[in-house]
């Protein structure tokens, strides 16, 4: 439905900060191509873009959560290592932890004449039975004297713990011994020589498992620090469930602040979680199971993500993902396993227990705090229900034998109990109708830059009625992408302009993957690259900033006349800036070609008095000297958006689009003098 109010505006001087000032015109610029962009801002041409169009997708891949967004510093805090035998099946049980086992990445301090470290099944936690046993053979007196500082074990974290001077870190561990203990706890440099924080655990009676909490204050900085547990007292000490968290996580919710901030800056309308292939697993026994990821962290068994080949302790679990969505002011989109993995499937005749598990998960998220599963959520500190409105039944499973049968069982059960929840099918409905009911359908695209760019028109003929598309994974990959190139970002930007223009048929879109720890690249490229202490956005991350104001904005009619026309794509929107409460008209144009283009912009339908006050705009450009340029820790801002002021503007004006560039032009809008239209109601009206 079209907007009920007219869009009559005039353009004023842009008031927000600028990084540079310049006149944007064709003067002195060599260009052998021209184009005309016609934008109609009248009521008849306008329609509302879905509030949910652009969001983010989080998958536990590349150590995105464990060792990334989830701020836990100890790697393998449950002191358990997955041995090869864990992957073997025995009867009805899909394997389990065995002892003795490798404690990697924990390492031993001292040689075997001074200390012996092993594992046993003596933990007090029923779902995490492995504990580490440290036999201290030396002493502070006698024939076998301990070395200075004592012997013990240390943990290097995820490729180094980032310890910063002046900050506090909460250490939690469990200890047991038949004798009194004197254990020194320290945060040190990577070689163990520089001491950044220290404390002692002195206890006369720890014959039963005893929880110890210590607040460590850092007196120095080292991004490659480690946690040490040492003793110089002969005897046997058991340790279990060792955790170290910075105290300055976002709202105390456990999210690393700098990485969280990069997500928040994108203004995502939704967050899809926790995968991806991470949800499926290569085998069902290693799929993500939400019930194993809630409650106190000490009782979470963790699991081996066999698709991306690393262990996660599931500290970042179902509750934390829902909390993350709430903290981002985003809608959660829960992707759950439907009884299908990469290599095995549950027959539809046996799927009902899986269905019940998902119904329980929905009750955990949305149920009354007195309900069975809602009460557990309340005990975890969130009595109010989470705003869960979307679920996806599986990931990339449409072609699997059991998918359709299983899907219908989940669909019927969920709609019966939660009729308002929108359900996403894995089957593509963009070119032919689905053969099963759904509210949305998944669409994934990974390809070369030119292919992704050309797919901007893929949804031109997609159905406008029935299920909407969820482009839940898109990215340029292969040689064009490198580790995150400008070329990749331009191909993706062109595709997203197509998504925006076809938002009658598309409800959501998100880039993939979101994060990569630079020490564990399982997939290239990614939006955000980080280590324990550093981070930067790739050009694909910065590209998404051009679209973050589109959610709930008004799409204007626009047409582009160019020769050749296959290297340019453009769109136009009006949007409300929450910072200054002003309305803007934004034009976005991608020049995918290798030549600069002089583009004449013609604006119509702005209102009777618009020409009298058209005199200011801001142009933002994403480009670089080489289309394969990338950002890096050495040059994190090599390819980022640059703002310049356009001082002389009119409703017919020329701009120069640099070759291989993404551009936006923001015009400040005001109601005409004789116009009584409420601009806010226009931008917020429903379609």
CATH superfamily of the largest domain: Glycosidases
Shape: globular
Helix residue percentage: 10-25%
Structural class determined from secondary elements: alpha/beta
User: Helical stretch count?
Assistant: 10
Give an overview in words.
- With 687 residues, the chain is of the alpha/beta class.
- The chain has 3 domains: 9-47 and 552-684, Immunoglobulin-like (Sandwich); 54-71 and 249-484 and 504-523, Alpha-Beta Barrel (TIM Barrel), CATH 3.20.20.80; 84-246, Jelly Rolls (Sandwich).
- It is built from 10 helices and 35 strands.
- Helix 8 links the parallel strand 23 (468-476) and strand 24.
- The longest helix is centred in the C-terminal third of the chain and has 16 residues, at 486-501.
List keywords for this structure.
687 residues; alpha/beta; Immunoglobulin-like; TIM Barrel; eleven-stranded mixed β-sheet; eight-stranded parallel beta barrel; 10 helices; 35 strands; 31% strand; globular; disordered N terminus; disordered C terminus
